[in-house]
Amino acid sequence: MRLQTRMGAAILSPGDLDFNVYRAFKNPTREAAEPFRFVDGELIERFLDVGEAAQRDICKGLGYGVEDVRNLVEELKKLH
Q1: Helix boundaries (H) for 23-78
Q2: What span, in angstroms and rounded, lies between the C-alpha atoms of 28 and 12?
């Protein structure tokens, strides 16, 4: 979830919307300002498309290096 939060801050979603606004939950009985327990695989996969400098910025404070995160995302990508 921390990776997704960092990615959402660094990468714009379709329509240049903030990630939390783009993936917010809304139905006739409930509305949330941001996603809750939702992992956006498309956003996570975009980690592989951004440049090395952006990947380093995203990984700051996560406790993992760029190569570790890159390998994790590639493994997750193979699952679907």
Answers
A1: 41-45, 52-59, 66-78
A2: 27
